[in-house]
Amino acid sequence: MMNRGYLLLDRFDRPPVITCSHDPVILEHFAHEIAQVDSVVVTTVNARRRLRRTKDAVYLLPVKKWQFATHLGLDTHHGGTVTFWALELAYLLGWTKTILIGMDHNYARQTLRQGEVQTAGHSDADHFTPNYLPKGAKFIVGDLAFSEYSFLLARAAFEAAGRDVVDCTIDGACQVFRKGDLATELEDELPRNPPPGSGGKSAVREPE
To answer: Region Disordered: what ranges (predicted)?
Structure first.
């Protein structure tokens, strides 16, 4: 889960395993909320005072060297988007398939200069809920070209390791990763042979 994804927790049947957040403006406004999420929190060393959390918290020091960290001995770069950081964590955790959802890669605020700090108005049209950035909250306008270069680094790292990143975002504008259907991708990962104690029922329903 990334940034303010916890606003969707009432729709989940279980808490996330990891919450990632490195955006300094998001952390300025919402670190106290992120600190309450029931998961491991991965953020930057600069957020330590705001988060005030020691249990299940990882504080990283991002550097200016633009690279995808394929092992813990490499420094991490923010990549211009928290999704890049989440992809690094997925790689380090050994995931063979990483599925992205909700990555529209498109901004309604087309007239704003990318990379600048702005102040939110009445409604946020760029996230999954209009109160993601309440009126008066600061935000950094996303730089799509910056993000795409970072995603290319991530894709190259995953492909070199024989792993896969699938973008299952409905109508997502990013063209870097392979596109897929979420239900199909999840079905491919579930065992078709019934596990012990399942009463002979397979985890995947075969078409009738």
So the answer is: 185-208
Pairing of strands 138-140, 117-119: antiparallel
Tokens standing for residue 192: 């078709």
Q: Which residues pair with 19 in a beta bridge?
A: 41
3-state secondary structure labels for all residues of 4-16 = CHHHHHHHCCCCC
User: How far is residue 194's CA from residue 208's CA, in Å, rounded to a whole number?
Assistant: 18
As given in the structure block, the two tokens for residue 172 are 């997502």
- DSSP annotation of 93: T
Nearest CA to 39 among 28, 51, 23, 29? 51
Which residues, including other chains, have CB under 8 Å from residue 188's CB and lie 6 or more apart? Answer: none
Q: Which two tokens stand for residue 99?
A: 């599925």
Q: What is the pLDDT of residues 141-168, one digit of tens each?
A: 778 888 899 999 999 999 999 999 999 9
Three-state SS for 150? helix
* Long-range contacts, 68-76 (Cβ 8 Å, 24+): 68/150, 68/153, 68/154, 68/156, 68/157, 70/157, 70/161
Please state the pTM of the whole predicted model. 0.80
| SS3 label, residue 99 | strand
Cβ 178 vs Cβ 164: under 8 Å = yes
